[in-house]
Write a sequence for this structure.
């Protein structure tokens, strides 16, 4: 019986299963009274544990396991051309190559066939780039290695579909082909996620997302360096900042004392797009004569610091 399938195959000399590939024989001249189970044209579903049981006073059982490997040869005995077939299940890449069939007649006859095995692409993370952080002005080389059959082709594009600046030929492109992408003298405009996409005509295509972060010291510019406002009115001062990593931002007066939020002052920093941009705002309520003078906006990050001045005067 097939143990895993709980299927009785034979009883004594009789085949119970309706599977025509199963037969049983008994060597009556063998003093050990040996029984044989025969399986022709073995299929993958034949694999598993088989049990033979002898119903003596105390039942005796013996187990055997059938492993079905990838290549099986069958012969169509009803084919007048006497054709033989080689079957390969669960095909692996190492199965590719040339196969020879030989008939050993008086003069041996041979026939060749070639098996092409296609394998979808796979990106090898161990030899491909991961997220990188560089300073502005440095060079960056991104690598993407993929395996597959046929060998995959690699193309690069930005995650946000903006163009890639290629320094070697002073051009900008939406896509770049090749397993290496070199960015020379990177700027903040090169910052973002890059997609490495591997294709070889065998679905599915695969991709890897690599984030490029560009660090630079804060820079700021002030839309209005002179702001006039009458006494008793509210006013907002603004400074625009670019920095990466994100800067620490604050305001001071002429005495360099930091301005904290209060009933008089309200500070805020609004993040922009792209993320390295932001706007500093200082809201001053009910301006008095003592509020006129110089205000400084200051931005600091690990790469440096900068400041700018705004003069508030009575209009």
């Amino acid at each position: 019986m097939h143990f895993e399938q709980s299927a009785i195959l034979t009883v004594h000399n009789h085949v119970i299963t309706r599977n025509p590939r199963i037969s049983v024989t008994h060597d009556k001249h063998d003093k050990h009274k040996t029984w044989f189970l025969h399986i022709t044209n073995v299929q993958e579903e034949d694999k598993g544990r088989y049990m033979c049981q002898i119903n003596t006073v105390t039942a005796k059982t013996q187990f055997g396991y059938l492993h079905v490997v990838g290549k099986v040869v069958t012969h169509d005995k009803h084919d007048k051309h006497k054709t033989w077939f080689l079957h390969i299940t669960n095909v692996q890449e190492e199965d590719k190559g040339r196969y020879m069939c030989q008939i050993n007649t008086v003069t041996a006859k041979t026939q060749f066939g070639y098996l092409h095995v296609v394998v979808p692409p796979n990106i090898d993370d161990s030899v491909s780039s991961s997220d990188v952080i560089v300073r502005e002005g440095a060079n960056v080389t991104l690598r993407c290695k993929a395996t597959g059959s046929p060998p995959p082709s690699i193309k690069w594009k930005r995650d946000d579909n903006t163009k890639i600046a290629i320094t070697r030929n002073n051009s900008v492109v939406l896509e770049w082909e090749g397993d290496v992408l070199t960015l020379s003298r990177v700027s903040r405009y090169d910052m973002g996620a890059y997609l490495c996409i591997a294709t070889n005509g065998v679905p599915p295509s695969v991709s890897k997302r690599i984030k490029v972060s560009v660090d630079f010291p804060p820079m700021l510019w002030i839309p209005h360096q002179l702001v006039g406002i009458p006494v008793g009115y509210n006013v907002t001062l603004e400074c625009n900042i670019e920095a990466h990593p994100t800067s620490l931002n604050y305001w001071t007066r002429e005495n360099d004392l930091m301005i904290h939020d209060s009933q008089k002052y309200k500070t805020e920093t609004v993040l922009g797009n792209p993320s390295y941009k932001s706007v500093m705002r200082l809201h001053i309520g009910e301006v008095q004569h003592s509020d006129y003078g110089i205000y400084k906006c200051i931005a600091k990050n690990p790469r440096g610091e900068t400041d700018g001045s705004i003069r508030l005067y009575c209009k």
Observations:
- The chain has three domains: 1-74, 121-215, 222-314.
- The mean pLDDT is 90.
- The chain is about 0% helix and 50% strand.
